[in-house]
């Protein structure tokens, strides 16, 4: 524009519109990149899933107690790593490094699995594998930051959909190529996560946010009563939301052959992959609470179905309900947490929230196992149904907070 001349009418407005368009384009690229990386990582992870128990017990010689110890240690590391990464992501105002390092940890651990000769040697690689979850809270914080209330649910739903799609294809890949041997499968499983890590490094651009306040760490005083109630009801629900391994045992008791159990696992994973994005979009339209209520209802009906339906089609229907429950709860729960959290403590809050759920997951499955063994196989379902109804009632008292940032 020549010096001294006046800008054309609408110039400032057009410049602002162009900035908004560029921002939306960058936001879509960020979410899309994370989706591809998530797909690749879960594809690699679930190549291992179907063979993991046999590898640990039959190949490395661990007994069931040691298998439980290894997996339990992994779950504990997941909870701690998410809280750690969330805290330091906010403190350092850096998110990207935790994401690509997390994928790289997963890839490195699988290479370690390939050359492990005993279950004792497996422990450090298992810890490294589960420590890869340092990616979750910082990644989710980035997604929340680049979204607003009109698309945040959709974006989290898209990520979860890509996770589940990668899991489905990973399991199928394992079943098709299991004959190539454990070592080769583990090495192949490392490749997608390496690609995902490089993708994050190359594509994601991070500009540290300028905070008006100094980060002093996360404590309950930073969280309002509304969030504390949501944390409490989510933890209560998690205590009754036992591992899907028990669902497979119910199916086995109902007459499913052992070879058919992986098919049931695939059914609920496919359903979760298909419906995660639609449920995320639906939460943008009708609210997070309403979709979470639906997810609680899916789980409650699933529990009732397993209690009273003992035929093939009834069990299949229960696994479909479980897939719908997972599709609704996982993306929308993160969306709501990111909106209830103080923006400057988003990663810390997401990490702390996931840590609490992870801590509750262990006693949940332990309680289910004890009830099954010492009371009756129906007892875990009765407890899960009861806790779900209580959590559902408490959810009515949660107020959603809409935020564009």
Give the mean pLDDT: 83
CATH architecture label name: Up-down Bundle
Tell me the overall shape: globular
What is the count of DSSP helices, taking H or I runs of 4+ residues? Answer: 15
**Compute the gyration radius: what is it?**
22 Å
Q: What ranges have pLDDT less than 50 throughout 5 or more consecutive residues?
A: 210-216
Give a topology summary.
Layout: H1 11-48, H2 52-59, H3 64-92, H4 96-114, H5 119-131, H6 136-145, H7 152-177, H8 182-203, H9 225-240, H10 244-253, H11 261-286, H12 288-308, H13 312-340, H14 346-374, H15 379-395
Summary of the model, kept short:
The chain has 405 residues and is mainly α. It is 77% helix and 0% strand. The chain has one domain: Growth Hormone, Chain: A (Up-down Bundle).
Observed structural traits:
about 400 residues; mainly alpha; Growth Hormone, Chain: A; 15 helices; about 0% strand
Written account of the structure:
By secondary structure, the chain is mostly helical. It has a single domain, classed as Growth Hormone, Chain: A. The protein is 77% helix and 0% strand. The chain has 15 helices and no strands. Helix 6 crosses helix 14 and helix 7 packs across helix 13. The protein is globular, with a radius of gyration of 22 Å. The protein starts with 10 loop residues before the first helix and ends in a 10-residue tail after the last helix.
């Amino acid at each position: 524009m020549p010096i001294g001349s006046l800008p054309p009418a609408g110039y400032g407005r057009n410049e602002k519109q162009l900035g908004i368009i560029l921002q939306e384009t960058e936001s879509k690229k960020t979410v899309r990149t994370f989706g591809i990386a998530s797909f690749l990582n879960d594809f690699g992870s679930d190549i291992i899933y179907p063979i993991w128990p046999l590898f640990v017990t039959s190949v490395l010689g661990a007994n069931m107690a040691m298998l439980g110890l290894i997996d339990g240690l992994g779950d504990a590391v997941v909870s701690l790593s998410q809280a750690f990464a969330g805290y330091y992501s906010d403190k350092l105002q850096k998110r990207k490094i935790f994401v690509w390092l997390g994928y790289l940890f997963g890839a490195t651990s699988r290479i370690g699995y390939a050359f492990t000769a005993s279950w004792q040697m497996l422990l450090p690689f298992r810890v490294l594998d589960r420590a890869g979850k340092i990616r979750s809270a910082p990644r989710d914080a980035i997604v929340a930051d680049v979204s607003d209330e009109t698309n945040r649910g959709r974006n989290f739903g898209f990520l979860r959909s890509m996770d589940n799609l990668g899991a489905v294809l990973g399991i199928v890949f394992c079943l098709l190529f299991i004959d190539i041997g454990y070592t080769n499968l583990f090495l192949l499983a490392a490749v997608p996560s390496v690609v995902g890590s490089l993708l994050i490094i190359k594509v994601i651009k991070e500009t540290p946010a300028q905070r008006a306040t100094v980060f002093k760490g996360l404590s309950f005083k930073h969280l309002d009563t509304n969030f504390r109630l949501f944390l409490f009801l989510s933890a209560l629900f998690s205590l009754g939301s036992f591992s899907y391994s028990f669902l497979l045992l119910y199916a086995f008791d109902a007459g499913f052959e052992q070879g058919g159990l992986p098919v049931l696992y695939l059914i609920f994973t496919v359903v979760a992959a298909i419906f995660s994005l639609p449920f995320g979009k639906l939460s943008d339209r009708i609210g997070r609470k309403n979709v979470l209520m639906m997810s609680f209802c899916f789980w409650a009906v699933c529990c009732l179905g397993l209690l009273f339906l003992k035929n093939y089609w009834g069990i299949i229907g229960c696994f479909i309900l479980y897939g719908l429950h997972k599709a609704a709860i996982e993306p929308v729960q993160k969306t709501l947490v990111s909106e209830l959290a103080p923006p400057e403590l988003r990663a810390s809050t997401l990490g702390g929230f996931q840590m609490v759920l992870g801590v509750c997951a262990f006693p949940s499955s332990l309680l289910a196992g004890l009830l099954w063994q010492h009371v009756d196989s129906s007892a875990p379902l009765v407890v899960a149904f009861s806790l779900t109804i209580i959590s559902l009632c408490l959810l009515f008292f949660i107020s959603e907070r809409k935020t564009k940032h």
